[in-house]
């Protein structure tokens, strides 16, 4: 059972940037899919971005061009660089690892975009 720990959330003004990081206990296999999801109050958890080994990534339409996901299998980490943040990006962000169709989750980190 892997454990995921997120960090880097906080309060930022609209237009600002934050970088979220996720540390994974143990080894990230090249076949693992890594990703970030978010859940805003009163809403369902939604996919933000995923990345596979080699860099193939996909993004929700709402974050395309603003967010960039990256992974480092050697360091067992995945990161999400978030630029041009908007109030609607406010949510708890969760790190996700999918291995053999089984999902593991972090505890989440709060991101609040507000002036």
Q: What's the structural blueprint in terms of helices and strands?
A:
Layout: E1 4-7, E2 10-12, E3 18-24, E4 33-39, E5 46-51, E6 57-59, E7 67-72, E8 77-82, E9 91-99, E10 102-105, E11 109-113
Parallel strand pairs: 2-11
Antiparallel strand pairs: 1-3, 3-8, 4-5, 4-9, 5-6, 7-8, 9-10, 9-11
Task: Describe this structure as you would to a colleague.
This protein is mainly β and 115 residues long. The protein is built from no helices and 11 strands. The strands form 2 sheets. Strands 2, 4, 5, 6, 9, 10 and 11 form a 7-stranded mixed β-sheet that branches. Strands 1-3-8-7 form a 4-stranded antiparallel β-sheet, with no helix packed on it. Strand 7 and strand 8 (77-82) form a beta hairpin.
Structure described in brief:
With 115 residues, the chain is mostly beta strands. The chain contains no helices and eleven strands.
Question: How can the largest sheet be summarized?
Answer: 7 strands, mixed
Which range best describes the helical content: under 10%, 10-25%, 25-40%, 40-55%, 55-70% or over 70%? Answer: under 10%
**Overall form:** globular
- Number of separate strands: 11
The N- and C-terminal alpha carbons lie at a distance of 40 Å
Count of alpha and pi helical runs = 0
Look at the structure and give the mean pLDDT.
96
Tell me the Rg in angstroms: 13 Å
